Amino acid sequence: MHPMPRYAARALEKVLVRGLVPVLVLGLVFGAGTDRIYLSGGIHRDAPYTSETLVFFRVSGCELAMTTHEDLIYLDRKQPEAKIHLDRYTLEMIPEKLNPKLEFASLEIRGVLNQKGFPVPLNKEVVGKVFLAFGTLHVAELALYGISIYEVERIDFLTPRCLHGWVDWYYNTTYFRITVHTEHLKVANMFDGSARCLLSCFNLEHSQLALTIRHLFNMADLHLLDCVFSKGLVHLSIHNAEKLATIDCFFLLKKHVRDGFELWNTSNKLCPSPEIVQALASKHWTQLAVPVEMWKGILAVSEAPFGVDELAIDCGNARTPDPLWDIEYQAKLPLKTLTITFFVDGRLTPAPNKSLEEILSMIDSCFVGVEEVRLDFDRKCLSEHINYPYICIEPLLPRLKRLVCSYIDYHKQCLYSSRNILWIAPNAYSDWASGKLTDEMKNVCREYVFPLNGNVLSLTPFLPTTHTTNNPKCFECYQSVDDFNGTPADEDAPMYLGIVCNSGHMACITCLKKLAKKKRVVKEPLCCPICDAVVAALSSNSIIERDDNGTAHFKILQ
User: Fold this and answer.
1) Helices 6-17, 160-172: crossing angle, 10 deg rounding
2) Is 441 exposed, middle or buried (0-12, 13-18, 19+ CB in 10 A)?
3) Rounded Cα gap, residues 508 and 385, in angstroms
4) Does residue 174 have a pLDDT over 60?
5) Strand partners for 438
């Protein structure tokens, strides 16, 4: 657990001395018949606090899940999801305690937003009593949405003078801290003051959690994280922080964010301190999403064991037209997934005026081992208009398995490879082997696939050769095409034969799935076992099958 800021620690110490910070210890002692009240998966309606809990959630229009066992009605211990609308309650409607044995998959505690999208202030006693009633809260995903406490919003947390107002707010109610066991905590559509207030009331030291912060309207820094009572975070994600000027905080400075850090849609005035940049640049990240200028600064001071598995670069507030081309890489950076965003909430970054080939060539020259690329931008960011649904980028990024070019108008383009498996329905194999579909395959590829290198001849998938036979066998299970033709059709798992290389070597879909899984386990590429040709396994599929009229056709599907 990290220390609080010095001024906050002194203030809370005064509260503790006065006895105003009771930590709730909830326990239930039952006599005979307890086994009838609590089953392994349910809580009997007569168990303590259960009827009050049911009534409490009904006020929010939420009926908790129930189960009947031996003519007795039980409240399910594990609840799928629930919502609490704080604006629907008065103090008299909130019980002193709610059943502490419930475990929620998802719980959203929300206020109400006005027409401008800002939270409407709520009664501070109502908010406090609701959280106090839980005592201990078990929830996989906890969301705090649109909660505003009027008295807190008038406090400037950054001045010692107003800190006393913070302490007085708790003095006049009852300062509380509830133990929260959660995997993911979301805080959204709130003012910074209310978010700090609520986060300081949670004891999260026993949770390995991800924290997502979205639309905190007046958040200029990340000091609210100093109110989080936790030993560390698994993942920290911050969205739509348009007034954020600094990200200095204990969690990032001391590298107590374990796996991932995301920072989206920020102001171009954001200026992280050198200490924070150095901290970000000296650890390995599973996920990292930062503005392009911050990424440039991280690379400039990076040191072992710095690395990233999944990287997202936000160019939404770039200060130069070509920010990605201004970055120097000492060597190619190993990377699995790359996302580049060229716009933020519809506001375009200065157009790079680059072709898609230039963008992908830049990625190919800066990174190695990339398996997935996503590009989000407006068409104005490109020097060319590509209206094809699929793109073939060979020979760039040879390990790429997925490419998505998503424009602001939601039109998408996906990766295509002529080395991808050609799937053929057994009853259509003879049409492919005879060359009957060759012209159709070429025409479909010209119509739907854009060749980045300009060579339309490179688009066509595997075609039959002079050595192609009409009844080959699967190179794994040795069943022939005729054998598969005799297999009853299964609508849920249709049978396809996969051509995996230019030589026409074939395997059934069942064997190819097993072989691909085996290769993934040992982290080896999928290759044809006969000729060692590398097999591309992309999300786009080239398929030959018969239509309802019995005519065989070639098509490309995503």
Assistant:
1) 30
2) buried
3) 39
4) no
5) none
